[in-house]
What does this fold into?
Amino acid sequence: MEFFQAIFNMSAASFAQHMVNGISLGSLYAMIAIGYTMVYGILLMINFAHGDIVMMACYFAFFGITVFQIPWYLTFVGVIIATALLGVVIERTAYRPLRDAPKNSVLISAIGASFLLENLANYLFSGRPLRFPNIELLSQNIAIAGVQVQAISLVIPVVTMLCLVVLLHIVNHTKIGMSMRAVSKDYEIARVMGINIDNVISITFAIGSILAAIGAIMWGIRYPGITPLLGVMPGLKCFIAAVIGGIGNIKGAVLGGFILGLGEILIVAFFPQLSGYRDAFAFIVLIIILFYKPTGLLGEKTTEKV
Amino acid sequence: MANKKNLILTILLLIGCFALAWYVNFETDSYIRRVVNLCMVYAIIGLSMNLTNGFTGQFSLGQAGFMAIGAYVVGIFTVPVALRPAVFYAAPMNPLIADIYMPLWLALIVGGLLAALVAFLIGTPVLRLRGDYLAVATLGFSEIIRIVITNAQTITNGALGIKDIPPLNDVRYIFVFTAVIFIFITALINSSYGRAFKAIREDEIAAEAMGIDLFKHKCLAFMISAFFAGIGGGLYGALLGTVDPKNFLFTLTYNFLLIIVLGGMGSITGSMIGAVLVTAGLEFLRVFDEPLDLFGMAIPLFRPGFRMVIFSVLLMVLVLFWRHGIMGTREFTWDKFIAFCKNPFGFFGRKGARKA
It folds into this structure.
């Protein structure tokens, strides 16, 4: 009952406002979740450091624009390249040596990489929150039909959709995409067929990190406080988004991201008293989904083989 | 005969350790006492984490959350009633619990039981998940526990934390808890439950085919682990004299991860060794957080935060190059120890030969 009352009490304008916020947050989650789902699809491991790659990308942008005074569009290109390199370097140093190790060791290594990035950021850039550089063009408020929105909130979904289209094209219609699908289908057979596994994995990490960098830039403009632990909660939630959609499935990750982003914003909008618990929402959805559909919404059914 | 000898040796060792604890308690300064206490508390929590992660093979990262529950129960119930209005100055304490006072040992056990209950509630859905999903879900729940604690202002004093917990600085007290938990977990691991846990770790499907109730045993391991983590957390809170939600960030769990990886996943004695090395090491590394002057030149490398960088590099190096840790899944036994004492040089050679 309370729920319906809350909906009726809300004006159309503020509802539209919340929807815009929800969709833009969902798009950001989707961008980051794609990185998790691609890595998991191929290596069957959680790249714990992915959220921290997002954090590092925010710091790169801060240093490019605020410290070195490089124009923002050039900085963004630089950030994307630097982040892609970071992703590949992490894969080479932390994950590649453990390719044949037990899964728990890889998981610990991933946690270690994530922890190292956090501590490194804390050490190098200090724990004090920094302000993401203000880009007037993107952070200004514009009014559409009486609804005040930040320009970036409208840019985020468009950029996300563009990235998704390009990514799906790469995965489905190019040679490297075909090798990625082959490796994720069967690692051993792909190797036998002459696919250079190490290259495919590096490219996967690079693509995931590029998306993370684009997501991080938009995240920074939307939510301008940068701290060393910035990537942790979004990272966990985006992994959950990937699981909800069906891990290994790119469209599923996007769907999961939207469910979490919209759900989180709308719950807080309708029940302001729950706003302290908004971070719990994702975990509860995770439990419910895994209970009823363990392979996620769009995941393929798999049977465990002995 | 050999068993009896080992038992006597173990008892002698425990008595010796207790005497040492006695000595440390009365003859050393408060800094040493503090480090020794912290070592033992970390050993308790390391052991509890090893029970799920090392022995049962369920990769859980929820230790910080369970510690927080234990620590808060100690914080809430052991602060003298007269001092409570001063502690809860922002919002008065909930009248239901405002007048309940517990001695420390009772609060520790209640905290452990509450942590076990929460573990049961979380574990029922979460333990159906596979390895790495479990890691994410438990990490998330440990953060949720922290969020709930931060929001429950009238019970936990919210973000302000609880101060004026009667400080615990008695080494013997913590030693007794550590020894009892050590003995309990050793007995558990050597019981039929322990063998079931190990079977689940080695191969879930095979274990199930052998008639082991997977869910029951996983849940049991998870709850026992949470119980001891709660007790350890309570001791940690009493040791600090104050609890605060920020003390129980998920990064705290990584300390114990390092302990069990260093000591060996699936080795009780390894966890004890790991706890001592990591705690003492973290204290030693504090040097790196302070500015260092070398030959009159300030070295800019040394400033706050450097210690944790080294700490995380250590974790990475450990898992990349020395993933079995000190003990692997082996245990310290008297027979091996005696063999080592009799022939310290031949010991390692013989082991190598056996491997080949």
